[in-house]
Design goal:
14% strand; 4-stranded antiparallel β-sheet; 2 domains; 10 helices; 338 residues; single chain; globular; 46% helix
Length: 338
């Protein structure tokens, strides 16, 4: 999720765990700091845009490492506020604020390496978009209440209900994703399209509209479903994904990295003698967040070049207008569609 939401989640958890044992602003402050810390890995440059993408949400998002880091962090915080007797409670608050960061990231599709250093496998449920106001706003209300409401008991109740509501929304997103997946499989089956390799993720900013991608050899089939669509079958549009070109360059290390990180949801194109690899999970045709020029096809004995990111962004105004229409159940073409 976005860093602002992670700060709010950490702050809300800090307030909930510390309760009346310390000033609410202190628990909100340090909980927010703990909620932000794992994302500071974006400041690291691994020398290649693809490596930067893959190495984000790695060791700094490992559940074990964050749990261990909570010990010295709690020691420092408890000493800063002369609350050594509350060291154990501070550890619980900061540990939970730290580990819920990657657990929340698991709800997105990006890929989070929560089991480092034992494996670099990246996991992602994909039931939440990276920014979702319906999740973040309750947390904001709870944290503001903790910092501004003078009645401590009332502030704690507001924060507790806000945290419970936002957590319930996460459960709702997983349930909605499951329902959309079943509907998508039925629609694909009725149209004679593949159902084995399937990606179901929310469209930007909500869980009201969903994007579905099915892989079929050389093609990807993209469709959208809004909860207001009801039982109406999904409509899919086929796009080339360059499977033959990918097979010809299967030994390219940059291509191998992206193929593994995306679990096969990628496409390859050749432009002016250079290979362009695109992560199909984040974005929609033809605009994607992670698209990389990885240089010319490799020849025997040739070393690969540093990738160059070539993201293509959708027009925000057109995208929001389309999203609003789809949320109402109107089957309109997405921006840039055929």
């Amino acid at each position: 999720m976005d860093s602002v939401t992670q700060v709010l989640l950490g702050a809300s958890i800090g307030v909930a765990v510390m309760g009346r044992r310390t000033a609410l602003w202190k628990s909100a402050l340090w909980g927010g700091v703990a909620g932000l810390l794992p994302d500071l890995d974006v400041l690291l440059d691994h020398g290649d845009p693809i490596l930067n993408m893959i190495r984000h949400r790695a060791e700094t998002h490992a559940l074990l490492l964050l749990t261990l880091f909570a010990f010295p962090m709690a020691w420092v915080v408890s000493r800063i506020h002369n609350q050594a007797r509350l060291y154990g409670r501070w550890w619980w608050a900061l540990m939970l604020a730290l580990v819920t960061h990657p657990l929340l990231d698991l709800m997105t599709i990006y890929g989070t390496q929560v089991f480092q250093p034992f494996t670099d496998e990246a996991y992602g449920l994909g039931s939440m978009f990276i920014i979702d106001p319906a999740y973040s706003l309750p947390l904001l209300v709870g944290v503001v209440a903790a910092c501004r409401v003078h009645n401590v008991g009332r502030a704690l109740r507001i924060n507790g209900w806000a945290l419970a509501l936002s957590t319930a929304y996460l459960a709702w997103s997983a349930l909605a994703q499951w329902g959309v997946t079943q509907h998508a499989r039925q629609s694909l089956q009725d149209q004679g399209l593949p159902t084995q390799q399937l990606l179901v993720t929310p469209a930007p900013l909500s869980t009201w509209v969903w994007r579905v991608v099915a892989i079929d050899g050389d093609r990807l089939h993209e469709g959208f479903y809004a909860l207001m669509d009801g039982s109406r079958p999904m409509r899919f549009v086929a796009h080339d994904r360059g499977a033959a070109l990918a097979a010809q360059n299967a030994e390219h290390p940059q291509l191998q990295r992206l193929a593994r990180f995306t679990d096969g949801f990628f496409k390859v194109a050749e432009t002016n003698g250079r290979l362009v690899v695109t992560d199909l999970r984040m974005g929609q045709e033809p605009a994607y967040v992670f698209s990389f020029d990885i240089g010319p096809p490799l020849q025997a004995g040739q070393s690969h070049s540093v990738a160059q990111q070539q993201s293509r962004r959708m027009d925000v105004g057109a995208g929001l207008a389309w999203l609003g229409q789809r949320m109402l159940g109107r089957d309109v073409q997405p921006p840039g569609g055929p």
